[in-house]
Amino acid sequence: MSPKNILNAILKNRTGRIGIILLALIIFTALFAPWVAPFDPYERVAQPFQEPSAKHLLGTNDIGQDILSEMIWGTRISLSIGVIAAAIALILGTAIGILSGYYRRWLDTVLMRFVDVVLVIPFLPLMILLAAYLGPQLTNIIIVIGILTWAGPARIIRSQVLSIRELGYVQAARSLGGTDFKIMIRHIMPGVMPIALAQFIRAVSTVILIESSLAFLGLGDPTAKSWGTVLYYAQTRGAFLTGAWVWWILPPGLLITFTVLAFALTGYTLEEILNPRLRSAGPHHRVFFDSKDLKKSQG
Q1: Which member of 156, 159, 164, 273 has the greatest number of CB atoms within 10 A?
Q2: pTM of the model
């Protein structure tokens, strides 16, 4: 399916439409943060613990910084972390999934047992340990999350490769003397990209949630205005004791929730559209595919 057909299919789905609308608002806020934010999030613009007002819609923190501006700039930082770390995880997962599914035999056994080990390791304690050891820097946080979240996409992509490698055009390319590398790049890769895209969108939401959790525990970059950092400073600087939690903790928490929900809804809808095994045979879903798409899936 073309990108236009995919977008139309998502918009025809009620769940996907909600996810796309929320996602568009979040991306718009991240891209235009310098123009949307009313104040510089790093400057003191009012008295500490000022309640919400017409000038400061979400009040101010303990040093007089505008909380709304912090949240708007935090959208850019949290979204950047999510996209970069998810891209790292997807690249690793796609490479391992393609190699495992294409070559099979002993390589498939070794790689899949390694994936099993990664999946059964207690995820959060290991991530906390690595983040604490490497230090609270955005680069370290991105690398840690990226290298610990690739196993799930690798298993899903590997199962897709097992089906693609048996198709006629792949067998024809192999019989005509095509090298393994060329076959994987020209034939296998395009076949797994739709599933990989759905996995990427869902991985972004997971990474944002993980980064917020690490930052809330004090393992994030204290100089970066991410959503998790805002929550961390709110919790450690008396937001609950002063009653400021209503405008200092609740809005960032809701924003994280809506962002994760937006990516999850979009990712699940996209995966349902692109993965034939998840599609219903009912007429509601058949409208997403034209005759050309049906012939390609059968060919």
Answers
A1: 273
A2: 0.82
